[in-house]
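User: Thanks for the earlier help. One more: UMF1 family MFS transporter. Can you show the sequence and predicted structure together?

Assistant: Of course, both are below.
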Amino acid sequence: MKKYSKEENSWIFYDWANSAYSIIITTAVFPLYYKAVATDAGVSMSNSTAYLGYTVAIATFILAMIGPLLGTIADYEGLKKKFFLFFFLMGTAATLSLAFVPGGNWLWLLIIYTITAVGFHGANIFYDAFLVDVTPEERMNKISARGFGLGYIGSTIPFIISIAIILLAGKEIIPLTTSTASRIAFVITAIWWFVFTIPMVKNVHQIHGIKREPNLLASSFRRLGGTFKEIRKYRTVFLFLLAYFFYIDGVGTIISMSTAYGSDLGISAENLLIILFVTQVVAAPFAILYGKLAQKFTGKKMLYVGICVYIIVCIYAFFMKTTMDFWVLAMLVATSQGGIQALSRSYFARLVPKEKSNEFFGFYNIFGKFASVMGPLLVAVTAQMTGSSAYGVFSLIILFIIGIIILSRVPEPDVKITTTY
């Protein structure tokens, strides 16, 4: 079996680095901290969940708007790394800034959280596109899945440290308030993300690209318009993006809103943090397993499996009442969360022309991000109209059903796509 190259390992290791943000900021500590601050400020439980949903929607809308243009510009030789660094540094700096927001100011928390999200997801556009530069097509499923698997493993380390500090502060074993302990978790996240991105910065370089033109911005707009017209001719790419639009909406919404939803059900912060930690541990081997099974059964069939698991999650969430129910739900999510994202990334990377990977991953981003606007808004509006988040979560089932129907019409990527203009 071929060993992993330095470039492959360095690319994979970025998942180790940025997954600390995914679990601590997106899923666990920040939502709980924000909910506590908002509640202390007199905001109702359903409204604070709705405001978080609106914030996620705003951040993803911003990325949906700028993603394709950024990707088009970054396809020029020597620019992919620069754009990656810009968003990476924006994300880490804003994450660190969360620790210094004055206590009780929930609105500023949401504003800075928006900046962290733009930095995190913006860097991921270029990180995902680097997959075509570090490994051949036949290894993409394996490398992508291994990245998600290592990310889940790596994220547990700063998460353990963070929840240990928070739980010890809550029990007054250490002389810190729970609020201060949460702020320390934000600092840990920023440092972890920054330090372990260094191998990616040093060893991963852009191989595929196009020659620079005199006026990059104007040329990029022309290329973007041309690709937007031509993308319909890439029938397989377009169908996959359409399927991805629907099913990844549900996945992203469940990831970003799960902790707030659990809090609304009355599950304690301590239990939520422990459940999320175990979820990360369980998700790691399952993400790698998805990659191995995709080599045996094809990536498309394993995407079917992941989507079906999420349909079950939506149904189960509607009837969830107890902490044990949340445990069951979290373990179901853990089996497929990493796998469905990893295989979507590698599936798409195998479809697109390598020299235009950033541009096409910009469209991959815009489909994913526009979807991520719809999901949180759906949950937020439903939560406010019904006074219950359960109906919003259950409504996500229709997105998975539409996604799997469209995916059934997408062939396996077995033909190399070349640039036609």
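User: Great, one quick takeaway?

Assistant: The two ends are 38 Å apart (CA to CA).
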